[in-house]
């Protein structure tokens, strides 16, 4: 008997998507770092991404990189390292993204202790206002990094869309390319990696507008859900349903569509509103907001409407469903990024690898 609630993972579709992305990147001589954080670095899934051709695996959490330690491929730490975790960063990550000299100094000292050379990619803020050194400070920062032993500056990179929503463009990634040229000329070094962002940068590849110097991307959603994230467009020849969420009906009854009584705040401090549609058949599923971003679930049966959720219950309108539903039946959903992230993280959701 299948366990509910569960997330079903189709390894063949993930491997296929990875190959499509790899071929797209290879045409522009771009290295592919497969981001594993949205599925919490389940090793079986990560191995399929590696089979699909990624050049390295990338994650924002050391705990996830630990899971991947036996996969023989370079590991990249995406989130800026914490000073309190430099020992693990050096041990489990071959490369880390950095913007703070204090942290780089700590990594230097720890790498010397571990008799290693830890690779650094300096992050540059091109206007999205998340992590990164401001453009005008890059050369001075590089000058200081090159003084440290135990670490090696192998590249520069940027992140766009994740906070400020700034879309990668030929212009702003062109700034990154120009900075790379300046660094190489100023210090007489060669940068191995010019990392032009995540899945939101892929639209430039498809349009042939990626600056030539960019040679590295860090996609996650594009591989796993087949979408670029600048405009949310489907990537040609990819699957969007490599992950399917399944939950079980625990109550099925006809009820009014408007609560009876004075309306106050719900369990999350919001005051809900309701449309009067008369008596409707409602199904309750055994999953809630503790486990999933409800707004990022898409019922596969188009006749199902998601009404809302509490911490532990997902409420659906199933009045128009053609199938004769009963308690114990399973309802299936496609997932968007936010839902997949929470479902993967929740210990209450069974992971079914297929």
TrEMBL record:
CDD domains in alphabetical order: PLPDE_III_AR_like_1 (cd06815)
A Pfam family reported for this protein in Swiss-Prot or TrEMBL: Ala_racemase_N
Residues covered by the Alanine racemase N-terminal domain: 9-224
Matching InterPro entries: Ala_racemase (IPR000821), Ala_racemase_N (IPR001608)
Cross-referenced PANTHER family: ALANINE RACEMASE, LYSINE RACEMASE
Protein's name according to its UniProt entry: Alanine/ornithine racemase family PLP-dependent enzyme
Lineage: Bacteria, Bacillati, Bacillota, Clostridia, Eubacteriales
């Amino acid at each position: 008997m299948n366990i509910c609630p569960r997330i079903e993972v189709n390894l063949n579709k993930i491997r296929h998507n990875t190959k499509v992305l790899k071929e797209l990147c290879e045409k522009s001589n771009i290295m592919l770092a497969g981001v594993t954080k949205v599925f919490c670095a389940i090793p079986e899934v990560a191995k399929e991404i590696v089979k699909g051709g990624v050049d390295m695996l990338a994650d924002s959490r050391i705990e996830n990189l630990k899971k991947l330690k036996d996969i023989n491929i370079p590991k990249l730490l995406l989130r800026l390292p914490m000073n309190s975790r430099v020992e693990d960063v050096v041990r489990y990550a071959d490369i880390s993204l950095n913007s703070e000299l204090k942290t780089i100094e700590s990594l230097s000292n720890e790498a010397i202790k571990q008799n290693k050379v830890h690779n650094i990619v300096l992050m540059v803020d091109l206007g999205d206002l998340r992590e990164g050194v401001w453009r005008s400070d890059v050369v001075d920062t590089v000058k200081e990094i090159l003084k440290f032993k135990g670490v090696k500056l192998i590249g520069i990179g940027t992140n766009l869309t994740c906070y400020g929503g700034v879309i990668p463009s030929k212009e702003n990634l062109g700034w990154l390319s120009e900075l790379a040229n300046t660094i190489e000329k100023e210090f007489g070094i060669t940068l191995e990696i010019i990392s032009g962002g995540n899945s939101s940068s892929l639209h430039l590849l498809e349009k042939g507008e990626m600056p030539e110097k960019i040679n590295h991307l860090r996609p996650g959603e594009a591989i796993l859900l087949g979408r670029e994230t600048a405009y949310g467009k489907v990537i040609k020849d990819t699957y969007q349903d490599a992950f399917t969420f399944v939950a079980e009906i625990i109550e099925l009854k006809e009820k009014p569509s408007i609560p009876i009584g004075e309306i106050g705040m719900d369990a999350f401090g919001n005051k809900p509103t309701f449309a009067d549609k008369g008596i409707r058949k409602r199904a309750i599923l055994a999953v809630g907001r503790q486990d999933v971003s409800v707004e990022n679930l898409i019922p596969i049966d188009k006749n199902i409407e998601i009404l809302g959720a509490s911490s532990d219950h997902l409420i659906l309108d199933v009045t128009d469903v053609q199938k004769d539903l009963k308690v114990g039946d399973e309802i299936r959903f496609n997932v968007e990024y936010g839902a997949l992230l929470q479902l993967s993280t929740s210990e209450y959701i069974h992971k079914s690898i297929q």
